[in-house]
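Self-study notes.
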Amino acid sequence: MGCSEVLELTDTDGEVTGQYSIFAITFNDSNLDDNAPRGAVYRNSGMHQYMVQNGYWMSPGMLGSCSTALDISDVDAFCETLKTGIGAIREKRSDSA
C-alpha cells in the first residue's frame, strides 16, 4: 500500500507528490490539514502532529523523505500510521463538533 492508496481507501481529498526520495502529502480536507504553509512555524493539531507523535518525522506541511535503507515493510508501517491517523483525527474532530 502507498500513500495515494491510503487517501483513496479513506476517501480523503488530497494529493501525494514527489520526486526521487522526497515526497509531500497535501490534504484538501480542512479537518486533516494543519492549516499552515510548508515550512512555517506553527502550532499544529492535524496530520503533521499525529505523524510526529507516532514516530514519523515530517516537516510542517507533510513533507518527508525516504532513505534507501527502507524496504516495503517500512513503507507499509508508515502508510498504516497515516491511515490510522486520518481516522483518529476525523473521529476526534467530529466528537468536538
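Second protein, same conventions, sequence then structure:
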Amino acid sequence: MSATSTGIPAGTYGFDPVHSTIGFVVVHNGISKFRGSFEKVDGKLEDGVLSGSAEVASVKTAIPQLHGHLQAPDFFDAEQHPTITFHSTEIRPGDGGSVEVVGDLTIRGVTKTVTATGNYGVGVNMMGGDVVGFDLTTTVDRRDFGIDWQAPLPNGNFAVAWDVTIEVHLELAKA
C-alpha cells in the first residue's frame, strides 16, 4: 500500500466490493497451494472496530465441482452455518504501516480468537473521499472450527493441509 499510514481513523468506513477480496490458501497433496475465495462479502470499520462477513454459499475455487462438497457438513456446512464472520477486539498499528488485528472469527458456529497481521493505509480516493485499506493474513487450524474432512495419500501426506491461511484485502470508504 502506498497510502499514508497513521492511526486507525474514527468514524464509519464502508466496504468497497470492487477493491476488496476475502480468500483462503491451503496446501494440497503436500506440495502446492490451492486457493479459493468468497464472492459475497461485506465489512466495515466503525470507530476502530473492523468487522466483516462472507456468505459460505459464495465460495469459489478453480474446480466448480468442489463447490457442493465445500457446502456439505464435512466442510463449511452451509445449511446450518451460512455465514463466516469476524469482529475485531483490538487493532494495533505499528511502524511503517504494519498492523495486527485481533478479533473473533466464527466458522461453522465456532468462534476462536485470531490475530491477523499485515499492512494498512489511510488516504483519499479519486473523488477526494477518505479511504482506509487493510491487507491481512492469519493462519488457522481448520479442525478448530470442525472442518476435519481428510483424505490420506499413499505417501503418508494428506490431500488437504490442516492449516489454512486466510487472506483479507479490504478497501473501505468513509460513509
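Instructor comment on the second fold: The CA atoms of residues 13 and 169 lie 15 Å apart.
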